[in-house]
Amino acid sequence: MAYDKARLIEIVREKGLQFGDFTLASGKKASYYLDCRKVSLDSEGAYQVAQGILEMLGDDLPDAVGGMAIGADPITASVITVAAVQGKSLLGFIVRKESKTHGTGRDVEGPVSEGHKCVIVEDVVTTGGSSLQAIEKVNAAGLEVLEVIAIVDRMEGGTEAFAAAGYRLRSLLTIEDFGIAPPVQG
Predict the structure, then answer these.
(1) Which residues of 145-183 are buried (b: 16+ CB within 10 A; e: fewer)?
(2) How many CB atoms lie within 10 A of CB 123?
(3) CB neighbours of 179 closer than 8 A, spacing ≥ 6?
(4) pLDDT of residue 124
(5) Share of the chain above pLDDT 90, in %
(6) What separation, in Å, do the N-terminal and C-terminal C-alpha atoms of the chain show?
(7) CA–CA gap between residue 10 and residue 68 (Å, rounded)
């Protein structure tokens, strides 16, 4: 089964899109909320996300994928699992929101090493703040971040924030795929 964008849109609409009054992690107010954990923790949703990301990455895979706990964790797991099914080698990692005070005290967990090239994965990007924090920690651990890939881009400044920091954002879907116009930036 290959990546099916139309099916992923259906899954996100059915399981992860809600309308109402919400305050986002960025602090912004919104009339809709995307809970893509309900997509990435659903077997078909996880598979579509993994297939889409692997298709986007093509044959030139990075050494690893990962991102900020907890939103990126199921995405990372599904991508590395589907990669293995396809006979491809790909590592995963988790970035801690808060530094660990025991054990190794590392912010980046997983079988990655200094010098590895990686892609940050994210469920929903609004302003990019969470992934920019992840990039800082990943860079501090000696990994080289190539780009950021999200399930959905809300089109509220994330692309520009990543570009300003020297990174590209790509997404499987944008808010426009749900018939929602992005806010006017300015």
Answers:
(1) bbebbbbbbbbbbbbebbeeeebebebbbbbebeebeee
(2) 25
(3) none
(4) 95
(5) 85
(6) 42
(7) 26
The model carries a pTM of 0.94
CB 148, CB 130: distance < 8 Å: no
> What is the phi/psi pair of residue 163, to 5°?
-60, -40
DSSP E strand boundaries for the chain: 17-23, 29-34, 64-68, 91-95, 108-109, 117-125, 144-153, 169-174
Domains of the chain: 5-178 (3.40.50.2020)
157-171, pLDDT tens digit by residue? 999 999 999 999 999
Burial class of 30 by CB neighbour count within 10 A (0 to 12, 13 to 18, 19+): middle
Strand partners, 152: 124, 173
pLDDT attached to residue 24 = 81
Dist CA 125 CA 66 (whole Å): 15
Main-chain phi, psi angles of 142, to 5 degrees:
90, 10
pLDDT means per 10 residues, the chain with 186 residues, are 94 96 84 95 98 96 97 97 97 89 77 97 94 96 98 95 97 96 75
Helix residue ranges per DSSP H, 25-149 = 37-40, 43-57, 73-85, 129-140
Q: Is the peptide bond before 70 cis (omega within 30 degrees of 0)?
A: yes
